[in-house]
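Ticket 4471: requesting a sanity check on a complex prediction with S-adenosylmethionine. Repro inputs:
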Amino acid sequence: MSPTAADRLAERVSALRGGIAYQAYLEAREAVLRMMDLSSAQPSAYWRHELSGFEYMLDASPLLIERLRHHSFHVTGLRAYDYRPGKDAHRRRLADKLGRLREIGDERHLVPESPQLGGFGHEIEGELYNLDTLKFFEAMIALDRCGALATLASSSQRSVIWEIGAGWGGFARVLKTAVPNSTYVICDLPELYLFSGPYLRTLMPDARVRYWSGEDGDALFEDWEEIDFILVPAAGLSAITPPRLDLVVNMVSFQEMTTEQVRGYLQHALDAGAHTVYSLNRDRSGYNTELSGLRELMGEQLTLEEIVLLDEAYTSLAVKKATAESDGPRQAASLRRLARRALRASAPSPRRAGDTNSYRHIVGRPRSEPGPHAR
Ligand SMILES: C[S@@+](CC[C@H](N)C(=O)[O-])C[C@H]1O[C@@H](n2cnc3c(N)ncnc32)[C@H](O)[C@@H]1O
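Returned structure tokens:
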């Protein structure tokens, strides 16, 4: 008798259950539940609401984990649906923006979306790209422009990079790939490790990953040079006392925190001897009422430099007029409508210093030489 659909399903689920992605998920879930027990820190009201949307990730099946990236819309809002075949206008606009970024950036820093774990994007020259991919490329270009990448790459010693609010882990993969001789520390809300933990373990199977489980800084950073990723919940901040701190990264995350949280992270970064703090954020997210203003807060303790790249937000997919006009009147009208909508959501041009709604690449450096380490 040939196997039934139920037999085939059971066999497939069983095979996935033993695979690296699901095993990495189980490891992450155990760590996350432990972190939740040890955590007293409250996320912002904005993030309490977001977290409630994906409680189901605590009880994910092997089939869901096989499509993990389809669920990270909870984190950055991108949906696989928008990248399916036939979305030609959207694809053209993305390709157009990719082209503009390639003109100003170093191709070596462009890391396409991996098809693993349900990775999605428009196919361009045989690779997958989506708005997150482009955002990460933009951030790499900014880090290149301010000299941070060259400093990391030329260091003979192993670097420490600290990303605050790494979301599903996409940028951690990009930056760690560019700077392999680094220990990459992430500090995020525990539940986010249900995404980034399995993602990083599956895509970088040789990486050594350590989850915080209540230890102090000495224990957490023991043998730090042997570890690739150290994942710490916000409540474990005091244990983040690395022996050096070359770069701190925050993307689309400070803008969603409270004033107290942002001040706490910035102070901690300075106490730990941070050389450079890179931020891609608005001054405050539209729905976040608990943050005063990011640039003002960063400016309290750091000298700030803005890196201006494209004159549009990373979320925007503006379209070149020539592209629209080559497509026949109906398509062109629809493209112009889409472009107007995209432009409405993007940064106003030209941007003014006082405009608090724009995403900005900001590089902060301590006013004096990095202070003594917190350890
Ligand atoms: C919109 S996501 C951005 C994720 C990622 N940086 C990116 O750009 O793809 C915001 C991130 O900030 C994190 N976050 C929010 N409040 C936080 C807090 N108090 N401490 C650490 N991370 C926080 C969220 O958990 C999430 O990972």
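Notes from triage: The longest strand covers residues 182-188. Leaving this open until the requester confirms.
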